[in-house]
UniProtKB/TrEMBL annotation:
Gene Ontology MF, one: ATP binding
Keyword terms, alphabetized: ATP-binding, Nucleotide-binding, Transport
Positions in coiled-coil regions: none
Family designation: Belongs to the ABC transporter superfamily.
Protein name, per record: ABC transporter ATP-binding protein
Superkingdom in the source lineage: Bacteria
Organism lineage: Bacteria, Pseudomonadati, Pseudomonadota, Alphaproteobacteria, Rhodobacterales
Length: 226
């Protein structure tokens, strides 16, 4: 089964009002195990809406979301949340790290919440931080880190519980171009090194070209980009 399968998704906001905005008009997508897929979309095309539906943070008006072959449609909020916490990692343009905790603690906390022991969580956090080149920054709080370092830590946090699927929304969008390239490379190494699948939204076509496939979201539908 594909790790993520979206079929015939439709979504409108403010349905049935004069301000109705139709964002998705039958969007289809499949991501196989280990595949890293780029999603490019003009601003306002519905990229965040699509990622939120794929990550079970929002529901479509119609269509089916399957995670590892399992149809999520009829599931209770509680079961959707459980699936999201186990199977999906999120990365945003801004890091959303907890300011009062160190880098290491930010990566360890989701593991502790998931039942890991303190020793396991610390060991995995240390390993993840080392893999993205910020091991020596582990004991600093986010405010003491550069923008690029903050994003690297956010990637580690997203992967802390070893999800099958990473959903990233402009993960290097707030960094300057030189830093963005390096930090993006760190994300790609992390993802390919763990064999997970990823859907990564970006405006940067050079970064997109480094992924296995490039898809475009436009006019509410998803099409391949050659
Ligand atoms: P993108 O991430 O591609 O910029 P979004 O998914 O955020 O696009 O938004 C797609 C469209 O839906 C935009 O026109 C946006 O203004 C609109 N939209 C997004 N969220 C809401 C909402 N909660 N209520 C009404 N309109 C929304
Ligand atoms: P937690 O397990 O930490 O309580 P949740 O299960 O609520 O987190 O959410 C999982 C991920 O989705 C987190 O990375 C969180 O930042 C993100 N998230 C939760 N709600 C929203 C939302 N409404 N919009 C965007 N991202 C969200």
């Amino acid at each position: 089964d594909p790790v993520l399968s979206l079929s015939g998704l439709t979504k409108s906001y403010k349905r049935g009002t004069p301000g109705e905005v139709t964002v998705l008009r039958g969007a289809d997508l499949e991501i196989a195990a280990g595949e890293v897929v780029a999603l490019v979309a003009p601003s306002g095309a519905g990229k965040s809406t699509l990622l939120h539906i794929a990550g079970l943070l929002d529901t479509p008006d119609s269509g089916i979301v399957r995670i590892s072959g399992q149809d999520m449609s009829g599931r209770s909020d509680r079961r959707r949340t459980a699936t999201r916490r186990r199977d999906v990692g999120f990365v945003y343009q801004f890091h959303h790290l907890l300011p009062e905790f160190t880098a290491l603690e930010n990566v360890a906390l989701p593991q502790l919440a998931n039942g890991a022991s303190e020793a396991e969580a610390q060991a995995r956090a240390t390993d993840l931080l080392a893999r993205v080149g910020v091991a020596e920054r582990a004991d600093h709080r986010p405010a003491a880190l550069s923008g690029g370092e903050q994003q690297r830590v956010a990637f580690c946090r997203a992967l802390a519980n070893a999800p099958r699927l990473l959903l990233a929304d402009e993960p290097t969008g707030n960094l300057d171009p030189g830093t963005s390239d390096q930090v993006f490379g760190a994300l790609m190494d992390l993802v390919t090194g763990t064999g997970m699948s990823a859907l990564i939204a970006t405006h940067n076509l050079e970064l997109a070209a480094r992924m296995d496939r490039v898809l475009r979201l436009e006019d509410g539908a998803i099409t391949p980009v050659e």
